[in-house]
Amino acid sequence: MEEPSGTHTKRKVVAVVGGGLVGSLNACYFAQRGFNVEVFETREDIRQAKIVRGRSINLALSHRGRQALKHVGMEEKIVSQGIPMHARMIHSLSGKQSPIPYGKKGQYILSVDRANLNKELLTEAEKYPNAKLNFDHKLQDWSPETGLMTFARSDGSTEHIEADLIVGCDGAFSAIRKQFLRRSRFNYSQTYIPHGYMELTMPPIDGEFAMKPNYLHIWPRNTFMMIALPNLDKTFTCTLFMPFEEFEKITSGDEVMEFFQKYFPDTIPLIGPDALRRDYFRLPAQAMVSVKCSPYHIGDKCVLMGDAAHAVVPFYGQGMNAGFEDCIVFDEILNQFDEDLSAALPEYTRVRVPDDHAIADLAMYNYIEMRAHVNSKWFLFRKHVDNILHLLMPKTIIPLYTMVTFTRTRYHKAVERWHWQDKVINRSLLLSATGAVLGGAYLLVRNPPDINRLVVPAEKMWSRLLALRSV
Ligand SMILES: Cc1cc2nc3c(=O)[nH]c(=O)nc-3n(C[C@H](O)[C@H](O)[C@H](O)COP(=O)(O)OP(=O)(O)OC[C@H]3O[C@@H](n4cnc5c(N)ncnc54)[C@H](O)[C@@H]3O)c2cc1C
């Protein structure tokens, strides 16, 4: 890759701590600008590792994430390695499957492999001559005054490295964030939800996907649910989300089978009874945490992005997408302030905190929508109404899911608009229903029906019923 323009005049050192999804993408952004980028990642290089431990096998990539990838020329490559999912496929207890489209025709989200995406981004970052990846570097501490960081190596040694800007992309349990917690006027909250998650694999059948591949399959069971996303190797990764206490009640293979027989009977032949009995106990259920904090920066020295700033529960499929969008937003702000870090960092906090807090709240809301609301007739009716209104008035009524998933409408603006639309649509439905009832009553009063014409068929019906009973 060519030396980016302006490199000779800038050459500020940017340390990206964390070489996960957001860190590796961010390295590309800073390198593209000509900064001298050093990525520090605690793990070994996942491109060489035999076993890659991650938090989920696949992820849903949507518009915000794609836009962020596009900016560094990675969109096409990643999209070509993903599987489009056009709709949710709801599996009822009886095994009936009903699709609910995500948006208009042609709109879809993509199932992408987490490890592969991370590998591709690391490889892309490494192509910049002004970017260097340092694996086996675990951040222990750093100083907000000097930017001096201390890293621990697996051989027991430590390294001290200084940077002009530290970008904390070290995930939900960020070590960079610990310095923020020591400071006054830093707001922080973390919430563990009572549910955990467990991943199970549904293998291909005769070399083909065991279920329709272009869907995100959902088995909503009110207090818990299972979802399945397709993979390129024709497997599905099924993720069971359930309260920890329910996971713990199941202690033997027979109990696993009994549970699946009761709630997900259609999946037993697809996952395979033996695999189910075995894989359920392979790993314990994993916890899910939601983290909110503010501000995201310290002076002109450090900024938090991705899960380090805002870990969200995975029910809107937006954690990574929001983290990727952080990279574009920061880049836009750097343009706006001509790379003056002392102005750009506070502006980033001002702009981004309301949006990341909004998506954290929406993800919590979707936690209930996915496992319970999709079973409700009113919810399905409202989804249809919203979609029809969106078709008729595409600029006035935009479904929330569309705004979040298929546009870059700021998350907090999407929430405000959603509340406004909901009020207008619900009031219009109420008015239409009241109008229909009053109109019907008026017509009945004006043109009373001939009572005899109604009574005679009723009598006929009654005698038929009596005849049926005596058969
Ligand atoms: C079950 C599940 C499903 C999900 N599904 C989706 C989805 O469909 N769509 C979506 O958009 N999001 C999804 N997410 C969220 C997504 O996984 C995260 O938002 C995303 O991984 C955040 O990326 P990150 O780089 O900020 O953090 P991480 O991916 O956690 O990466 C942090 C990196 O920092 C490194 N690190 C940690 N500590 C240190 C240290 N002290 N020193 C140096 N390095 C360190 C770690 O090794 C890691 O490589 C899901 C999450 C879960 C749990």
Automatic annotation (TrEMBL):
Keywords associated with the record: FAD, Flavoprotein, Membrane, Mitochondrion, Mitochondrion outer membrane, Monooxygenase, NADP, Oxidoreductase, Pyridine nucleotide biosynthesis, Transmembrane, Transmembrane helix
Q: Which reaction does it catalyse?
A: L-kynurenine + NADPH + O2 + H(+) = 3-hydroxy-L-kynurenine + NADP(+) + H2O
Kindly tell me the pathway this chain contributes to: Cofactor biosynthesis; NAD(+) biosynthesis; quinolinate from L-kynurenine: step 1/3
Q: Looking at the Swiss-Prot or TrEMBL record, what is one Pfam family this protein matches?
A: FAD_binding_3
State any GO BP term from the record. kynurenine metabolic process
To which protein family does this belong?
Answer: Belongs to the aromatic-ring hydroxylase family. KMO subfamily.
Task: Identify this protein by name.
Answer: Kynurenine 3-monooxygenase
